[in-house]
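Reviewer 2 asked us to include a model.

Predict the structure of this chain.
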Amino acid sequence: MNRASKIAAAWSELAADQLAEQVRLMVKARDAGARAVWGAVAADQVLVARVRGALSALKAEFRGHRDEVMWLLWINQAQQHLVADTAPAPAPAEDVVEDAVEVVEVVDVPAQEPVAAARAVRDVPVMVFQEPLSQ
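Predicted model (structure tokens):
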């Protein structure tokens, strides 16, 4: 059992206020050891929920504080480590395509008028807004 796993195991035994203080210290550390701890925490879903609660409380605590932006950045990074470590790995693209090909059935569709002709010409071009990529 490595150091990060020991810390995660110890955190599961702590009361809520003690856990919040430990989470605060780990958020502030922001080093390789902290990233390892977030990875170890992500392995236990109950602990992940408790840590997310502590992170939310920490966010609320620093609302309006002069260092709010800095703390929100650090807290968001910690939350991303918890989410990134728990997200399932995507399936290989080849497997997905093969599965989709097997499921598709040929169905007779009655002839319809072209959809492009039914659309009215617009004077204003269509704009698509996308959320910026988080890092």
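Residues 50 and 94 are 38 Å apart (CA to CA). The radius of gyration is 24 Å. We have added this to the supplementary material.
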